[in-house]
Amino acid sequence: MRSLKNLLVTGGAGFIGANFIHYLKKNNFNGKVFNLDSITYAGNLENLKGIEKNFNYEFVKGDIRDKDLLKFLFGKNEIDTVIHFAAESHVDNSISGPKVFLETNVIGTFELLFTAREAWTENSGFKKGVHFHHISTDEVYGSLGETGLFSETTAYDPSSPYSASKAASDHFVNAFHHTYKLPITISNCSNNYGPYQNKEKLIPLMISNAIEGKNLPIYGKGINVRDWLYVEDHCDAIWTILLKGENGRSYNIGGNNEWKNIDIVYKICEVLGSETSKSKSEYEKLINFVTDRAGHDLRYAIDATRIQKELNWFPKESFETGIIKTVKHYLGK
Ligand SMILES: NC(=O)c1ccc[n+]([C@@H]2O[C@H](COP(=O)([O-])OP(=O)(O)OC[C@H]3O[C@@H](n4cnc5c(N)ncnc54)[C@H](O)[C@@H]3O)[C@@H](O)[C@H]2O)c1
Question: φ and ψ at 72, to 5 degrees?
Fold first, then answer.
């Protein structure tokens, strides 16, 4: 079991990073948490309002590509663990403007690895207990047909500039392990849902548009399938890997919870129908099919056997309860 003291969380003002910091506080983590985030359009410090109360937390506004800042942070704060969330994360944006995905997701990850390696080198090895955990996605594996699952041994085959940049960053993390022996783990997770997600993503977009009486735009025929995991379960999986994950190993994380996009939207309409004064069918009337996303992957699904068997991690939240919590969050309930 690793012992963790000074954590550098990157991208902690984003959706999953913020939930992870809340998870640490809720689970009484008693070390220090540094949140390095440049606050792009996707970062929101409101997600962490009041977090510093009774919690050893410091926010650092800065970019993961800023080598001098990274060097300073590692030197001053004796960082022993990096949990790397910061990224450009929206596939649609990667289609309209791919370059920043290369810059943040690939070069930014490289700069973090490079600084960690320099800061953690002692004599000819690494300081005891240091660790770099990289958060990645199942999208690196490409698209599945109607059957099959992605396992950790599935060959990488990314389709979008987003998934290509995440695949490249995963390769750099592995390369720093194989070449320099940097202690690392990687997790490749399916789609997350829950509180604090930016409204550009499917579930919060549909919930907030429905609340405002706006159209619910669905790509193509809505038949694309994704596996959905409640964000707190993802945070719990990351924490489990940090404590018990094998050095150099990748872990797939999933909810065993596949949904077609259109069925997710019907489900949201149903929950909104029971949580508000409008009916389910009034919300469903807002559904509007739009031109499909370029190169839209048909289906992603995860085989999470490794993390279940080796680290005894299982998701706790059911989709039935998780989606109600999520809708309530956006309703401000
Ligand atoms: N959301 C999902 O369903 C999902 C699923 C699997 C993996 N992931 C991965 O998890 C991580 C977090 O995803 P998310 O949905 O929370 O993303 P997000 O877009 O909500 O948040 C990203 C955060 O990173 C920060 N950031 C961006 N560029 C930065 C830079 N150059 N320097 C410092 N900070 C920067 C942003 O300000 C923001 O706070 C990403 O690496 C993503 O690839 C996400």
Answer: -60, -45
Q: Output the CA 158–ligand 1 centroid distance in Å.
A: 18
Show the CA angle centred on residue 105, arms to residues 163 and 91, nearest 5°.
40
Q: Which domains does the chain have, with CATH numbers?
A: 6-193+230-254+301-316 (3.40.50.720)
Tens of pLDDT, residue by residue over 231-249, are: 999 999 999 999 999 999 9
| Angle, in degrees to the nearest 10, between helices 67-77 and 109-120 | 40
| Structure confidence at residue 333 as a pLDDT band (50, 70, 90) | confident
Cα 60 from Cα 140, distance rounded (Å): 30
Mean pLDDT to the nearest integer, 294-307: 94
Report whether 306 contacts 316 (CB < 8 A). no
**Ligand 1 atom, smallest distance to 40 CA:** 37
Does the structure show a pLDDT above 90 at 282? yes
**Taking the model in full, what pTM does it have?**
0.97
Residues with CB under 6 A from ligand 1: 10-11, 13-17, 37-40, 42-43, 63-65, 85-89, 104, 108, 135, 137, 166, 189, 191-192, 198
The CA radius of gyration of the chain, in Å to the nearest whole number, is 20
Q: Which of 35, 40, 105, 107 to mutate to test the pocket of ligand 1 (most atoms within 8 A of CB)?
A: 40
pLDDT digit string, tens, across residues 46-89: 999 999 999 999 999 999 999 999 999 999 999 999 999 999 99
Kindly provide the b/e burial profile for residues 125-139, where b requires at least 16 CB atoms within 10 angstroms of the residue's own CB. ebeeebbbbbbbbbb
Q: Do 327 and 268 meet the contact criterion of CB atoms below 8 Å apart? A: yes
For this structure, is 162 an active site residue?
Answer: yes
Check 23, 57, 162, 300 and give the catalytic one: 162
Asked whether the beta carbons of 327 and 275 are under 8 A apart, the reply is: yes
* Active-site entry in 63, 80, 111, 138: 138
